[in-house]
Design a protein that fits this description.
The protein is α+β, with helices and mostly antiparallel strands. Helices cover 40% and strands 23% of the residues. The protein has 13 helices and 17 strands. α1 crosses α13 (427-435), α2 crosses α12 and α10 (266-272) packs across α11 (280-292).
């Protein structure tokens, strides 16, 4: 098949690619040209400042007493000094350069829209009508969102049976969901945190029933990646009458389901502490020095296909991969139906290695992988695991896996949180597109 690159659409994309390359070059060269030798020295100072800041953060996390506070001051002062130097030396160029970079990013993505690099959005299916929906609601979740947004009243008006969890006693939400299925429920839903969402979602997947997410938790990461409006939990209930169905993957750490992630290592050990819920920052600062310097905690090993991560301080296994290449989308998942786990492993044993995480484009201490299965082992029979924020202790080795398309999630047809899928910037492809002429 031949594509006419002289057609108006291709003509516009070709010039957008040229604009992106020119703007990116100007964004980098303008500060250097304006500052002359000072600009070169300033660039070196910026890189050095980044390295010092990263090292100071490492010292802050791994030291105690006066050394920690001196390192914290250094971590705060260094970037401030660098910013002041940039402002004094570059002036108006410091404002223009980011604008040029924004133009480069926008133009580059526009140019690549029709080249097959745009991420594929999750496919929407027709949602079958339900007659006996069942919803569990946690009245304490998210600071009382169930009452504040009238979630119980709206759900019951739409025909759902609602059970409020008792905040004064522990209840087995899995057993409640199974009982609802036995009584004829044809949809299961949760208004609560991601940990509760995962437990009920597993029951829905087991019985091939649709699942409804009501973002009444604190962070609602799963709801965010589904595109739900986290500012209006009541809008999630519109899926009962005007919804579509998404086929979503479900992760498991051993037999424990997760919709977001399972964490191993330093963070998982911190959240196990009884003092963590009452004093998160203080507990974290108290425990991290021993955990990061390996004086406490297990030595982990993660096996991902043919790759082995030996001795990472932290391993994060996620239900589909988080974005790591775009500051705007950092911490989000583009899709939830790739059929692959995302694996993020961090191994840092010195301030120099901490600086490399920031400055090296491919640092040895950071592993970003994807696979269908991950086995996390340790030098002890049991390890701490954080599964969707819930603190667990599991026997080793812990087998993490993903079940593709296991979950039928009903979501509202109109979801303002679904961003337009943007292509990833590929500068090599932009150069080829900018140089294209004639027919291809």
């Amino acid at each position: 098949m031949r594509v006419d690159v002289n057609a108006p659409a291709w003509h516009g994309q070709r010039w957008a690619a040229r604009t992106a390359l020119a703007a990116a070059a100007l964004a980098v060269l303008l500060p250097l040209g304006y500052g002359g030798l000072d600009g070169v020295l300033l660039l070196a100072a910026g890189l050095a400042g980044g390295a010092v800041t990263a090292a100071a953060v490492w010292w802050t996390l791994t030291r105690r007493g006066p050394a920690r506070w001196l390192a914290a001051v250094l971590a705060a002062v260094t970037p401030t000094v660098v910013v002041v130097l940039f402002v004094v030396t570059l002036g108006w160029v410091l404002v223009l350069s980011p604008v040029l970079w924004a133009v480069a990013v926008w133009s580059g993505r526009y140019a690549l829209r029709s080249t097959g690099t745009r991420p594929r959005r999750m496919k929407e299916h027709r949602a079958r009508s339900v007659r006996r929906p069942f919803l569990l609601m946690n009245p304490r979740s998210g600071g009382g969102k169930v009452e504040r947004f009238g979630l119980r009243e709206k759900a019951e008006r739409l025909g759902a049976r609602v059970v409020l969890l008792d905040p004064e006693e522990h209840q087995d939400v899995t057993a409640l969901a199974r009982a609802a299925v036995a009584e004829g429920a044809d949809l299961l839903g949760v208004a609560g945190g991601d940990g509760t969402q995962a437990l009920v979602a597993a029951v829905a997947a087991e019985h091939d029933l649709p699942f409804l997410v009501v973002c009444a938790g604190t962070r609602n990461h799963f709801a965010m990646d589904l595109g739900l409006d986290r500012a209006d939990p009541a809008a999630c209930l519109d899926a009962l009458t005007d919804g579509v169905e998404l086929r979503v993957d479900l992760g498991f750490a051993a037999d424990h389901p997760f919709v977001n992630n399972a964490s191993f290592g330093a963070y998982a050990a911190v959240v196990q502490s009884p003092a963590y819920r009452d004093d998160k920052i203080g507990t974290t600062l108290e425990l991290l020095p021993d955990l990061l310097t390996r004086q406490r905690g297990p030595r982990l090993t993660a096996r991902i296909d043919a790759t082995t991560l030996d001795g990472p301080q932290a391993v994060l296994v996620s239900n589909n991969a988080y974005r790591t290449d775009d500051p705007v989308g950092l911490g989000r998942r583009e899709r939830l139906d790739s059929g692959l786990l995302g694996i993020l492993g961090v191994k840092v044993d010195s301030a120099a290695e901490a600086a490399a995480l920031l400055l090296d484009p491919d640092p040895e201490g950071l592993a970003i992988l994807s696979a269908r299965e991950v086995i996390v082992d340790a030098d002890r029979p049991e390890i701490e695991v954080g599964v969707d924020g819930e603190a667990l202790i599991l026997p080793t080795p812990v087998h993490c896996r993903i079940v593709p398309g296991a979950l039928r999630v009903h979501v509202p047809r109109k979801r303002p949180g679904v961003p337009e899928a943007q292509p990833r910037l590929n500068w090599r492809q932009l150069r080829k597109l900018a140089a294209t002429a004639g027919r291809a």
